Amino acid sequence: MNLPDYFETAHGTGILATANSEGQVDVAIYSRPHVIDENTIAFIMRARLSHENLQSNPHAAYMFIEKGPGYKGKRFYLTKLREETDTALIDSLRRKDGKHKAKSDEKSFLVYFHIDKIRPLVGDNSL
After folding, report:
1. CATH architecture label of 3-120
2. In this structure, is the dihedral angle defined by the CA atoms of residues 50, 48, 73 and 71, taken in order, positive or negative?
3. Average pLDDT of the chain?
4. Would you list the domain boundaries of the chain?
């Protein structure tokens, strides 16, 4: 799968699931990730529960549901690698559609993830 092409052409809704060290789960709507390479994606995150959970538990799952009829999309199983707070780098990655502007007083993080596994949105019986 060519991830840059997939996320440039696919339109839909993304959902990120995280859990803290006690296993309490959170899910949140997230935009398409920034593809770093075939094994690494990154999300721009704010200081919210998803980011907080990743401080004690590096594992997450991202589900991308494609627009259109039927159930198409992908499930990504992820492990956090690192994060950065370089404002210039984060601003350079922000999508230029105007929907993702950060409030000037709100800290953002660029969180990198290793892609452990990719599965289709439904099915495949993979364990």
Report:
1. Roll (2.30)
2. positive
3. 91
4. 3-120
